[in-house]
Specification:
By secondary structure, the chain is mostly helical. The chain has 26 helices and no strands. The relative contact order is 0.12.
Length: 584
């Protein structure tokens, strides 16, 4: 397979200031600002601060709606089936949609498709003779759809063997095999969903991709309430299959509109003819028409790049496989406790990565044009802002773990014992949320250059070995809490290695400046979590306990961050001061 033509070498293009005050000083991270819309004719190049803020807000709102529906989905699953063998069987089959979401929607496909589409859009803006975007779709989509369909068929046929590998300790693998055969259709539907999402995000269209999990979770909820009685836990698997189709349906019209837009390449400027009175006979004799510019080659996918991205995403998702493999040997309900704790604890991480999802095409476009300085400042701001969001969320989760789980799940077949077990696991999971967020943000920085890099896969492999080793050593003594601690430790090791691996071949992040800001935020989050936990101890009912704890944690985090000089608050104060001076 032909390769993606390399972008302009790092550092050779013009560096643009990331904010109104120019480039950041060497010792810190510059304030949030915007470069404004790009001057080219391609409308996909909107990178101004106001546009990114609006896009991030819309994406965050829709993502929060999808996450809330995900909580309702988990509540319905807990209500109908509790935390017993039926739920464990479905969660083994649920491994396929989780893995497919990581490989095909969130990380894998996006890490090489967004840079490829961004490169095609940059060439479209240069006035290529043939539309590079349409040519790229014609060359890539049919082959990838065929691969997705083949993978779905193989997974359906191999469901019994897959269940035996994923959860060898299940007492009755029959329901898990049935659910796995139904959820295996996600290999096709999630693949098409990821392709549409990457194309739309590269075009700076974020609404349709952000709605996919709203449609997906709504379908699972509807299937549970309509089919739980006649089909049992297989109703949830049916909802996964229907939800996968809906994720494609909600994006296809928007992508079709983008591809149908008429493409008119800009005419190249021609030299003005010299007046006849001034032309010399020699010039007249030697003059020749300028050769037409050669059409830019169509971006294609590099096989090695694809494998590095997919192996990284698969390696990252294997943390879940390790957890469920280890938990299958524990008493019934262990897999369910891990699942519920992880779903709630990772909500702050999902929210924090929304900004990185929006700015990923901006970084890829900047590197394609050789604007390394602009890409670096964007990535540094994203790391600090994402860390800020996830740390305040982690502090809130740790402080209010028990009343939060009681509020969300303790009804029906989900007992008080399940609440206590899930809350204890969730506190441990929350310790690794910053690591998860940094891995998600830094992986985008590594892959945004559209060139092969093995550093993310190496870092993730070291993290997986750490997770597996600690998990095997601690599961016998600490049970599910040992598995959660292994997850948190392994992902933090990966984050450190990824941060140290940034450099000229990717995005040259100033490591000391970023680590210094994150350290201040970690201290602020630790203090806020302690204060929130002290408040929760004196409130018996779950609703006021959660609301009060979240309020105390948020206010304490902001105040402690200001006291410690955390960068996001200083940036916000400078921005507000500038706007007030402008108004006056």
């Amino acid at each position: 397979m032909t390769t993606v033509p390399p972008p302009v070498a790092a550092g050779t293009g013009p560096a643009t200031a990331a904010g109104p005050d120019g480039p950041a000083a060497e010792g810190g991270i510059g304030p949030e600002g915007g470069t404004g819309p790009e001057g080219g004719r391609e409308t996909g190049g909107r990178t101004g601060g106001s546009f990114l803020a609006k896009a991030a807000l819309v994406t965050a709102v829709l993502s929060v709606a999808g996450s809330l529906l995900g909580l309702v989905r988990d509540q319905a699953l807990a209500h109908f089936f509790g935390a017993g063998t039926d739920t464990d069987a479905f969660l083994v089959a649920w491994t396929l949609p989780e893995l497919a979401a990581t490989l095909l929607i969130e990380d894998g496909l996006a890490f090489f498709l967004v840079p490829a589409f961004s490169l095609a859009l940059a060439r479209r803006g240069d006035g290529a003779a043939v539309d590079p975007v349409r040519e790229f779709v014609r060359a890539s989509l049919p082959r990838m759809a065929l691969c997705f369909a083949g993978a779905a068929v193989l997974l359906i046929a191999g469901a019994p063997y897959l269940v035996a590998v994923l959860a060898p300790g299940l007492p009755d693998p029959g329901p898990a095999v049935d659910c796995t055969r139904v959820t295996a259709t996600c290999a096709l539907t999630f693949g098409l969903t990821g392709y549409c999402s990457a194309a739309l995000r590269a075009h700076q269209r974020f609404v349709a991709p952000a709605t996919v999990y709203v449609a997906y979770n709504a379908a699972i909820i509807a299937a549970l309430f309509a089919l739980a009685v006649p089909l049992g836990v297989r109703a949830a698997a049916a909802g996964v299959a229907v939800g996968g189709v809906l994720m494609v349906v909600v994006q296809a019209p928007s992508l079709w509109r983008q591809l149908r837009r008429p493409y008119r390449p800009e005419a190249q400027p021609q030299p003005q003819p010299q007046p006849a009175s001034e032309a010399t006979p020699a010039a007249t004799a030697t003059a020749a028409p300028a050769p037409a510019p050669a059409p830019a080659p169509t971006p294609t996918l590099q096989t090695t790049l694809i494998w590095t991205v997919l192996l990284f995403a698969l390696c990252r998702q294997s943390q879940v496989l390790i957890e469920r493999f280890l938990a299958s040997s524990l008493p019934a309900g262990a897999i369910s406790h891990l699942n519920y704790a992880q779903k709630v604890a990772q909500m702050p991480m999902a929210l924090s990565l929304m900004l990185c999802t929006v700015t990923f095409p901006v970084v890829a476009r900047a590197l394609a044009k050789g604007e390394t300085e602009r890409a670096r400042e964007r990535v540094e701001r994203d790391l600090v802002l994402a860390g800020c969001v996830v740390l305040v969320g982690a502090a809130a989760v740790i402080a209010a773990a028990h009343p939060l789980v009681e509020l969300l799940f303790q009804r029906g077949a989900f007992t008080a014992r399940d609440t206590a077990a899930t809350a204890s696991v969730m506190r441990v999971y929350a310790l690794g949320l910053l690591g998860h967020t940094m891995v998600g943000a830094l992986a985008r920085a590594h892959f945004s250059a559209a060139r092969t890099t093995w550093a993310p896969l190496f870092a993730m492999s070291i993290g997986i070995v750490t997770t597996a080793g600690i998990g095997f050593l601690t599961v016998g003594t600490w049970g599910v809490r040992g598995i959660a601690a292994a997850n948190a430790t392994g992902i933090c090791v990966t984050a450190v290695l990824l941060l140290r691996g940034t450099g000229p071949r990717t995005v040259p992040v100033r490591t000391r400046a970023v680590v210094g800001q994150l350290a201040r935020l970690v201290l602020a989050a630790g203090g806020a979590a302690v204060l929130g936990a002290l408040v929760v101890r004196h409130i018996a009912r779950p609703v006021p306990a959660v609301l009060t704890s979240f309020t105390v944690v948020t206010v304490s985090f902001v105040l402690l961050g200001l006291l410690l000089g955390a960068q996001p608050w200083a940036t916000a104060l400078r921005s507000v001061s500038r706007k007030l001076r402008h108004v006056r």
